[in-house]
Specification:
By secondary structure, the chain is mainly beta. It has one domain (about 1-160, about 175-210): outer membrane lipoprotein receptor (LolB), chain A. Helix content is about 5%, strand content about 40%. It is built from one helix and eleven strands, in the order αβββββββββββ. An eleven-stranded antiparallel beta sheet has the order 6-5-4-3-2-1-11-10-9-8-7, covered by helices on one side. A hairpin with a 4-residue loop joins strand 4 (about 75-80) and strand 5 (about 85-90). Bound molecules: 2-acetamido-2-deoxy-beta-D-glucopyranose (4 copies).
């Protein structure tokens, strides 16, 4: 939360910073945990993710037993290159296949993101007490919102803020490791194969974030 507030203040303060020639980096293969919360303080989901940055695949499984009232039980497999995703119900061995209209997600910086600033969170001069962060911003596709994404110098995503109406979201990543621990999580489950593509209702923009709104 503090990071969110700091960032917001920073965005306001540095609105006049000139865009420079930084190119957005691309995040590596990762395994970790993700927390999605609204800026009203509701935890929408907490769970483990697996991300293949080469094959552009993302699996997120929320932990329904995480002790919050508002978290959603969701198991998503997003296949960005194919432009589709699956909502998986492993208990039920059932699955829904949907088209992705928006490929933005909180684990990769969009190619058209604008570099905002480098900030030192914590202390830059005391060993182990600070972290240097690059902040990237851009427009959310399919809505009027903006995002601000913070990554480490090695391009590990720390958090992403989505400023949108009526609700803004903060997504933060923890315990990130630079490997795909279980590649099977990125394979479409057999019970999902042959599933027909569901129609997207008029006016709906399917995206990772949209699943939590
Ligand atoms: C990421 O993981 C995929 C699937 O295991 C692999 O094909 C790819 O080479 C990995 N990418 C990197 C940069 O290690
Ligand atoms: C889910 O959350 C509960 C409570 O925080 C924890 O005990 C459990 O290990 C978690 N399960 C997974 C699969 O992360
Ligand atoms: C959880 O939600 C229910 C219904 O919305 C509410 O009555 C209850 O007080 C909430 N519990 C906690 C611990 O927030
Ligand atoms: C199983 O899937 C059906 C839809 O295919 C759903 O209506 C039902 O609630 C699911 N049951 C459980 C226990 O998740």
């Amino acid at each position: 939360m503090f990071a969110a507030v700091t960032l917001f203040v920073l965005m306001c303060l540095t609105a006049t910073t000139h865009a420079d020639h930084h190119q957005p980096c691309h995040t590596p293969n990762m395994t970790g945990f993700m927390t999605l919360m609204t800026l009203k303080g509701e935890i929408r989901a907490f769970g483990a993710f697996t991300y293949d940055s080469t094959g552009r695949k993302l699996r997120f499984r929320s932990n329904e037993s995480h002790p919050t009232n508002t978290s959603l039980g969701l198991d998503l497999l997003m296949l960005y290159d194919e432009g589709i995703f699956y909502e998986i119900d492993s208990k039920n061995q059932s699955c829904e296949k949907k088209a992705l209209q928006c490929t933005q997600h909180p684990l990769d910086i969009p190619d058209d993101a604008k570099f905002l600033a480098t900030i030192n969170s914590g202390s830059p001069s005391i060993e182990g007490e600070g972290i240097k962060i690059n902040v990237w911003t851009g427009r959310m596709r399919g809505s009027k919102g903006y995002y601000a994404m913070s990554v480490t110098m090695g391009c590990l995503p720390i958090s992403t803020l989505y400023f949108s109406e009526p609700t803004s979201y903060l997504i933060s990543n923890t315990d990130v490791e630079l490997e795909i621990k279980d590649p099977d999580l990125l394979v479409v489950p057999s019970f999902c194969l042959g599933q027909p593509l569901e129609e997207t209702p008029e006016g709906t923009v399917n995206s990772f974030l949209n699943e939590f709104m």
